[in-house]
Specification:
The protein is α/β, with parallel strands linked by helices and 216 residues long. It folds into two domains: 139 residues, HAD superfamily/HAD-like (Rossmann fold); 58 residues, DNA polymerase, domain 1, CATH 1.10.150.450. Helix content is 44%, strand content 11%. Strands 3-2-1-4-5-6 form a six-stranded parallel β-sheet, with helices on both faces. The longest helix is centred in the first third of the chain and has 17 residues. It is globular. The two termini are 13 Å apart.
């Protein structure tokens, strides 16, 4: 199959989930909602669940329901963590990406600043000249359709010639509907029509992509 672009999610995809980073970010999200927005602490957890279900992210929920929310202040605050506590350089990931000749991009609901920090910490930033972040989506985050439209416009590639690598089935469904080839990293073995291929870890994606491209 012709492959024009490889699209990678960032958090919990390029590094293993459950390493504690998103637990700390979650604590900071709660603190932002309480300290900066003024939400009653007893309502925060229920609000975050509803925002995820309704809007896809807490930030979009806050922007929709609390008009004074400053998205730049939110992004800076919640991502202000010491990544060295959670993410280590990954030479094996660097080698795998280097073996894939197709151009690569990041599609993330986080900020470009956070993406750069994560990619630099992993030692793979040089593989990703394009980062389509939450601002590039105009805060219409995955899995909303505009996020994928913003991506395709930025990379100037047809969806049918893109492979997207994600840890979230929910975020793969719109990509699949557009015609992208979807590759799920981890998250069990429940079948879903949005999943074309499934691997256990990010390091397993290289072999799948090479096969699809006719490289092996």
């Amino acid at each position: 199959m012709p492959i024009s672009y490889l699209i990678f999610d960032l958090d919990d995809t390029l590094y293993p989930s459950g390493n504690g980073l998103w637990d700390e970010i979650g604590v900071r999200i709660n603190r932002f909602m309480i300290e900066r927005v003024g939400i009653d602490p007893s309502h925060v957890n229920d609000l975050r669940k509803r925002y995820f279900q309704t809007y896809g992210t807490t930030l979009r929920g806050l922007l929709a329901e609390y008009s004074g929310t400053d998205p730049d202040a939110y992004l800076a605050y919640v991502h202000d963590v010491d990544l060295s506590r959670y993410i280590a350089p990954n030479p094996a990931l660097d080698s795998m990406l280097a073996a894939l000749p197709q151009p690569k991009a990041i599609l993330t609901n986080a900020s470009t600043e956070h993406a750069h920090r994560v990619l630099t910490r992993l030692g793979v930033a040089h593989h990703f000249p394009i980062i389509v972040d939450i601002r590039a989506m105009n805060f219409e985050n995955k899995p909303l359709p505009h996020a994928y439209d913003a991506l395709l416009k930025r990379i100037s590639a047809p969806a049918a010639e893109c492979i997207i690598v994600e840890d979230s089935v929910r975020n793969l469904r719109p990509a699949k509907a557009l015609g992208m080839t979807t590759l799920l990293v981890g998250n069990g073995h429940e079948p879903d029509p949005a999943i074309d291929y499934r691997v256990d870890t990010i390091l397993d994606t290289g072999a799948v992509i090479l096969r699809l491209a006719g490289g092996i």
